[in-house]
Write a structure and sequence with these properties.
single chain, alpha+beta, ten-stranded mixed sheet, two-stranded antiparallel ribbon, 3 helices, 31% helix, flagellum, transmembrane helix, cilium
Length: 215
């Protein structure tokens, strides 16, 4: 004789099995979505980290370094004063600095470079000669010392380790002042990528009978 109780038990077991399968599929879908979100987040964080690393590297390497700095002495004889006033009145009125790329640096465009001049008498921002806002700030000029492919002459850009440009700062400009014997000044050069170089210029204690001095 057929047992109806066993039939109901079989149907109950089938319903429980389907419910478990549905829950399992739902869990798999949720896990897949979560994994996709985690993978996307990890990729985004990796890209951000790489970009930050590149920017930090550029700030360290993409900069100019000093090769040599010379100051022009505007002494008392230039204005017709007596020889007895030569030591007292001699001042540095022009700074000529030869620069090159730092080791590992990419191209540096001088037009995109700014400088901060700090002396005992003032602090001022300097901008490139061709900058549109140069009328508001003192400017610096440059000439080519060495350039294999005319990049400095044509594009104002140092793009090779052998390139040399001489940067000239006229201290007679508004917002600047000449340096006396024994004084010092600090010059901070900042490139477009954020690389910075700080140079301390020290004037000798005596400028007597000198037209130029090493700073």
């Amino acid at each position: 004789m057929f047992d109806r109780t066993d039939d109901r038990r079989d149907r109950d077991r089938g319903q429980v099995g389907i419910g478990t399968l549905i829950v399992f599929i739902a869990m798999v879908l949720v896990a897949a979505i979560a994994a996709g979100v985690l993978i996307n987040t990890a990729g985004f964080l990796q890209s951000s980290a790489e970009e930050s690393g590149e920017q930090a590297s550029e700030q360290v390497t993409n900069r100019l370094v000093e090769v040599n700095t010379v100051g022009h002495v505007n002494n008392a004889n230039d204005s017709g004063a007596g020889a007895e006033d030569l030591i007292e009145n001699g001042t540095i009125d022009y700074v000529n600095m030869t620069t090159r790329l730092a080791p590992g640096s990419s191209d540096v465009n001088l037009n995109d470079t700014t400088m901060q001049w700090v002396s005992p008498d003032e602090s001022s921002q300097l901008v490139a000669r061709d900058t549109s806002t140069s009328g508001d700030y003192p400017i610096f000029n440059w000439t080519t010392v060495r350039d294999n492919d005319a990049s400095v002459q044509n594009d104002d850009t140092l793009n090779d380790p052998v390139d040399r440009a001489e940067i000239t700062i006229n201290l007679n400009q508004t917002q600047l002042s000449t340096l006396d014997a024994g004084q010092s000044a600090e010059l901070q050069i900042s490139t477009r990528s954020g690389g910075q170089t700080t140079i301390t210029l020290v004037v000798p204690d005596s400028l007597s009978n000198k037209n130029t001095v090493q700073l």
